[in-house]
């Protein structure tokens, strides 16, 4: 398969996912996409049907506000962390969706729920479970962290040392001022900015060059 075609398939998959293409009017969408997939230029037609010809799709920080595990952007947040070489703090291995036993992957609240509930700042349940507060680590690491705030467990001597590079791979800001519950909203804002930039970069990595071409009009 030509690399541009392979990239086009991945690009279509990612966009169809984050746009919830089949979340409603499923029969109508399938009635459009199945014939396109059987056509002479299936990938181009599928992407044309998404309306992305000539467009540059970007994920903005605002697009991630209020998104949680039920959002398709949650899947994309895993992909960008995986692509950045994010590692599990306890085992030191790259995060993997197929890991088993103590290395089995879980999503973890960077700022634990227990430290945010009933906080004077009045964080809502949606804020606490915001996509920007979720990272991917092993079940064992999650148990070791327990319900302590980042200001404590980031520097816990009983856990393997945590470097700025390791946090960066998870798109977690290293700024010590953002590790306390008081600064939680500022933490969310900064992490959304980092995640959105990484998501946009990942999409652009698979975007076929021919999307910038003007489609030819059929000749009579």
Brief rundown of the structure:
With 220 residues, this protein is mainly alpha-helical.
What does this protein structure show overall?
- This protein is mainly α and 220 residues long.
- It has helices spanning 3-18, 26-37, 42-50, 72-83, 113-116, 125-128, 139-145, 150-153, 164-169, 184-206, and strands at 105-109, 134-138.
- It has a two-stranded antiparallel ribbon with strand order 1-2.
- α2 runs antiparallel to α3 (42-50).
- The chain is elongated, with a radius of gyration of 20 Å.
- The relative contact order is 0.17.
- The mean pLDDT is 90.
SS class? mainly alpha
Unreliable residue runs: none
Distance separating the two termini: 31 Å
Q: Globular, elongated, flat, extended or rod-shaped: what is the shape?
A: elongated
Q: How confident overall, as mean pLDDT?
A: 90
**Order of strands side by side in the largest beta sheet?**
1-2
Task: Count the E strands.
Answer: 2
Count of DSSP-assigned helices: 10
Strand residue content: under 5%
| Largest β sheet strand count, sense and barrel closure | 2 strands, antiparallel
Order of helices and strands: HHHHEHHEHHHH
C-alpha-based Rg, rounded: 20 Å
The percent range for helix content is 40-55%
